[in-house]
Amino acid sequence: MARDDFSKPIIRELRERVASHCSNPDCRRKTAGPKSGGRGTIVLGEAAHIHAAAQGGPRYDAEMSPAERASIDNAIWLCRGCARRVDRDEAAYPATLLRQWKTRAEDLASDELDTRPPAHGDAQEELVGALSGHTKRLLPSLIKNAHAASVETLERLDPRFHIESSHQGGVTRFRIEALETVPFRLSVPEERMAEWKRGVDAALQAGTPFEIDAAGFAVRGSTLLTEA
Ligand SMILES: [Zn+2]
């Protein structure tokens, strides 16, 4: 079956017009970055068809010419996940919606050209502003966002872990669960060795859980364990 695919220059132009962000406004994932080793790029997005490239595909429009189907006007840049989603649930993602996404994504990319990217301290400053009463209205969503953001950041550090955060009584707790066996090495400082051994022995012999102040301890094996 004939497929009206996009040319390489079109694909590149499409991606650069949204600064490599996924065009889904709820996603906006960055889809391109450097390959390790100082050379090459990794691209995790694709030029998706607004109207399918071939008959029978999602949102196929028989009225269009092959040239129209293969033109940049019929393309939207999406991350892989979003590209699958919009093609598998055609009814939820009509062409009109995809065009809105595309326009909005290009507008955002254009705005961002003249804007300083957010720095590490920005979220914190906003949160402090909210906590000190400047933007009370936003407080619940800010706290929720801060949680989501920290969980996401931590999970990105090491995807072998699943993380949940909760905030209660002024204390934020993170629950870190390994999704697979993660080998790690724990260094216990000399002077804490006896204390550590007592706890471990009790845990092994009687199954009693123990808590220990981890000051001076070092864990190696995951960026999460060292940076969190
Ligand atoms: Zn996406």
Sequence-ordered SSE layout with sheet pairings:
Layout lengths: L7 H10 L14 E3 L6 E3 L1 E5 L16 H4 L5 E5 H9 L6 H19 L6 H12 L7 H19 L3 E8 L2 E8 L6 E3 L5 H14 L11 E3 L2 H5 L1
Helix pairs in contact: 5-6
Bound molecules: zinc ion.
Describe the structure.
The chain is α+β, with helices and mostly antiparallel strands and 228 residues long. The chain has three domains: 8-112, no CATH class; 138-182, no CATH class; 183-228, no CATH class. It has eight helices and eight strands; from the N terminus they run H-E-E-E-H-E-H-H-H-H-E-E-E-H-E-H. The protein has helices at 8-17, 66-69, 80-88, 95-113, 120-131, 139-157, 193-206, 223-227; strands spanning 32-34, 41-43, 45-49, 75-79, 161-168, 171-178, 185-187, 218-220. Strands 1-2 form a two-stranded antiparallel ribbon. Helix 5 (120-131) runs antiparallel to helix 6 (139-157). The chain is elongated, with a radius of gyration of 25 Å. Zinc ion is lined by residues 22, 24, 27, 29, 78-79, 81-82.
What hetero molecules are bound to the protein chains? zinc ion
Point out poorly predicted stretches: none
The tally of domains stands at 3
Beta-strand fraction estimate: 15-25%
Q: Name the average pLDDT.
A: 85
Structural class: alpha+beta
Instruction: Going across the biggest sheet, name each strand in turn.
Output: 1-2
Radius of gyration: 25 Å
Percent of residues in helices comes to: 40-55%
Q: What is the general shape?
A: elongated
Number of strands: 8
**Gap between N and C termini:** 52 Å
List the secondary-structure elements in sequence, H or E: HEEEHEHHHHEEEHEH
Number of helices: 8
